[in-house]
Structures are given as C-alpha cells and as structure tokens.
Design brief:
This protein is α/β, with parallel strands linked by helices. The chain has helices at about 5-15, 70-80, 90-105, 115-130, 160, 170-175, 185-195, 220-230, 250-255, 280-285, 305-320, 320-345, 370-375, 380-390, 410-425; strands at about 40, 45-50, 55, 110-115, 135-140, 180, 200-205, 235-240, 260-265, 275-280, 350-355, 355-360, 395, 405. It is globular and about 60 Å long. The structure holds ligand KE4.
C-alpha cells in the first residue's frame, strides 16, 4: 500500500487544522503512521487518495450501517437540497422522522433532534438534572458520551487513547458532580448511592460499551442498574449513540429487553449527516423547552438534509429488519474466522462481540472494563492494525474502539479479511 498523497495532504492539513484532523481519533496517534485521507467511498469500500481500495470496518464510526453512499439516502439528500438547505422553521419531515423513531424504539413518546451525539448526551443529562432537581451523575470509566465537560472524566474512545482521561479545561466543580464507577461492577455503583443519598440525578451508560473496544454488559449488570435507579428515583440514561438502530430496530432497549428512562441517539439516525437526538416518555420530555423549563436549542437541529438522510435510513431499517440478522451473521463469521487464525497462532487474545459490534484485544484476560481493556498489548495492536491496513483492511486506529460492520460487506469481503489476518500472523514476530 502506498500513502504518498495521504502523507502530503496530512502535512498541509496540520498547518491549518489542530493535529491535521477534525476529530482526534482520526490522527492515528494510538497506532502511529500517517492517517489515510479518503477520496470517496461506496458500499463496503473506501477509496483513499493514493488509489488504494480498503474494506471498511469503521463505517464512519457507525452511521454507514447500510454501506457508503447508499443510493436512496443520496437521492433523499439531493431532493431535499433542491428545495433549500436550512430554514430555522419547523418542517413536516421532522415530525415524520420523530414518529418513525417513536414507532421503532420502545418506551419513548417524544424525541428532540440535535446535531451530534455529544449534544444529545449533554442535553439528556441536563434534562435528568432538571427533572429530578438533583445534581450528581454516575458514569463508567471507559464509557464515552462525547466531549462535554461532565463526561471527560475517565472517558473512553479518543480520550483513553490519548492517555489523558481527564482533559484539561474541565473544572473541579464539574468533576465533583460526575461520579465514576467501573463497567460490569454493580458494587461500584451502589457505593455512590450510599455516599450521596437523594443527590444522584442519573446514571449514564453505554448499554453495550463500544469505546473501550466492544464490552458487552455481563448478565445482571444492566438489570441491576435498573433496580438501583428505581430504588433511588434516579433516571437511567442509555447512551445509544452507537447501539441505537444498530443492535435492533429498538436498539439496546429491545436487544437487552431493559427499559431506560432517557435514550440518546446519533450516527445511524443521521444517515451520515450531523444528527443526534434524545428521547423519553412524555412525562420526562414535557420538562424540555419550550414546553417546560429545561432549556436546549440549536440553529441546525432538525436540518432538512439531515432529516431526509436519517428518515430514509430509518425507513430502510424499519422495513427490512432482516438487515440486523444479516449484520449479526456476518459479524459472527468474522469472529469465528479470526478466532481460528489466532488460536492457531497461539498468542494471547480475546475477541468481544455483541450484534455487529466486535473488537480484538491482545490480552489473555477477559476484557470486561477499562482496566482489563487497558491491559491489552498496544504494540501488538499497532502491528495488527498496520499489517491489516497493508492488506487493504481498514480497522479502527485504536484498541479502544469497536468495529462497525455494514450491510454492504459481503461474505467474500469477510473471507478476504480472514485471509489478510492469516498473512499478518504468518509474519508475526
Ligand atoms: P459525537 O458527538 O461524536 O457525534 O458522539 C459522541 C458519542 C456519544 N456516545 C457514544 C457512545 C459515542 O460512541 C460517541 C462518539 N463515538 C466516537 C467513536 N468512538 C466518534 C468518533 C470520533 O470521536 O471521531
């Protein structure tokens, strides 16, 4: 694989964009080397600026669940754009996508559109604080809910990759109201309720974690959180920015059969355009402006192009639920193939998977929380990442990320991925 053009583009980018990227994880800091500049994408493939075709396992970090440049979504965007790109006024399409989301997702009556997952999670916490009149929240080390101050406390994703879990700029006052627990450890949650009775507004969690690599909840964990929230009148916020409309039509609530009080969304919901959202029963959502006192707003919220893309994406998923089964089967095939190759190699590894979320960890212990994810051998991960990239397989450039399969991936693409892994392992020292 050649990367001359990506390399020169990266040089230019670094002169005018911090780190040469508009989101840190794209800079390859965790794996070294030059970030790949993409020229275009179609279906399961990325085409980089050096003419390489790569099989994509990031799907834009989740949104491209139907594959890149999905024709019906492109058509919807073009048709919408012909009528204008933003109005700052309500449109019928916002009602239609909201009605469809409410139909697909259990336990929600109303949904508010915003412009990113960060904005969705930030707003959900404010709503929970406004609704309960309480100030503290519990999050989990390694879970990432976007870059709002309240969440950059032992966050996952790029924050962990950077080894700077507590970002400068987050005030002590903010950090005081964010209590930290360990994923899959109910005791570490119950402790906070003992210490701060009647003060905890919400628990926010990735119901299937994807920002420490993929970490599924162990049996009883999420159910335990539900019980603690019910006992202490605390709201349970499912951050479904990754899992929403991916694990099932109804996301993790449907897949895990557990009711959240507020859910946040992003990624798939926008069909690749900037969209986030948060949703809840009307009893909670009625506290949100302009109906209620909790303020939240956004110039481009409900943007017509984004709504057109998102509505088309959701409609396709809702009318073709077999897509979710196909995704699960493809991910299981990938898992089995990787397991076989790595078992033969005899190196320490663990593969975590739930639905179409999967990740490989170079460690011989179970990966169940941030500490065990951080035990993974990052030098091995770097070798693996670059080895696979040289074979034309584009994986997340960090061990603290999940892969996201898309429906355009064929079983042949997956076979090629396993063959690539065999070649990488043949050269493995
Ligand atoms: P955005 O603000 O990036 O749209 O969403 C933040 C967010 C919230 N909640 C969860 C569970 C998330 O995974 C994310 C964002 N995910 C990362 C990937 N791990 C986005 C990639 C990036 O930061 O560039």
């Amino acid at each position: 694989m050649r990367y001359q053009r990506s390399s020169s583009l990266f040089q230019s980018a670094q002169k005018v964009i911090p780190g040469g990227v508009n989101s840190p994880v794209r800079a390859f800091k965790a794996v070294g080397g030059t970030p790949i500049f993409v020229e275009k994408a179609k279906g399961a493939y990325l085409y980089d600026e050096d003419g390489n075709r790569l099989i994509d396992y990031i799907s834009s970090w989740g949104p491209m669940i139907l594959g890149h440049a999905f024709e019906p979504v492109l058509e919807a965007i073009k048709t919408s754009a012909d009528r204008g790109t933003s109005y700052g006024m309500p449109t019928e399409l916002e009602t239609k996508i909201a009605e469809l989301a409410v139909k697909m997702v259990p336990n929600i009556d109303k949904i508010r559109m915003v412009n990113s997952g960060t904005e969705a999670c930030m707003s959900a916490v404010r709503l929970a604080r406004g609704y309960t009149g309480r100030e503290k929240i519990i999050k989990f080390a390694g879970c990432y809910h976007g870059h709002s101050d309240a969440f950059l406390i032992q966050a996952g994703s790029g924050a962990v990759t950077f080894g700077a879990p507590n970002s400068p700029g987050v005030t002590k006052g903010t950090a005081r109201d964010t209590l930290l627990s360990k994923y899959n450890d109910l005791e570490s949650v119950a402790f906070h309720f003992d210490q701060h009775p009647q003060q905890i507004a919400a628990i926010i969690i990735e119901p299937v974690a994807g920002n420490m690599g993929c970490i599924p909840p162990q049996a009883g964990f999420i159910e335990g959180l539900r019980r603690l929230c019910d006992t202490h009148q605390t709201l349970l916020i499912f951050d479904e920015v990754m899992t929403g409309f991916r694990l099932a039509r109804g996301g993790a609530q449907e897949r895990l059969q557990i009711k959240a009080d507020i859910c946040t969304y992003g990624k798939v919901l926008g069909g690749g355009l900037p969209v986030g959202a948060f949703a809840a029963p009307k009893e909670i959502m009625s506290h949100l402006a302009p109906e209620g006192p909790v303020y939240q707003a956004g110039t481009l919220s409900g943007n017509p192009l984004a709504m057109a893309a998102g509505f088309t994406m959701l409609k396709t998923l809702n009318e073709n639920p077999e897509i979710f089964e196909r995704l699960d089967n493809k991910t299981e095939t990938l898992h089995q193939g990787m397991q076989e190759v790595l078992d033969k190699k005899g190196i320490p590894f663990h593969i975590n998977r739930l639905g179409s979320m999967i990740s490989l960890h170079f460690t011989d212990s179970e990966v169940v929380d941030l500490d065990s994810a951080a035990d993974g051998n990052n030098d091995s991960f770097k070798k693996y990442f670059h080895g696979m990239l040289n074979e034309g397989i584009y994986l997340p450039p960090s061990a603290f990320e999940s892969y996201f399969l898309n429906d355009a991936l064929s079983f042949e693409d997956i076979e090629k991925t396993i063959t690539a892994l065999k070649k990488v392992m043949a050269l493995w020292k």
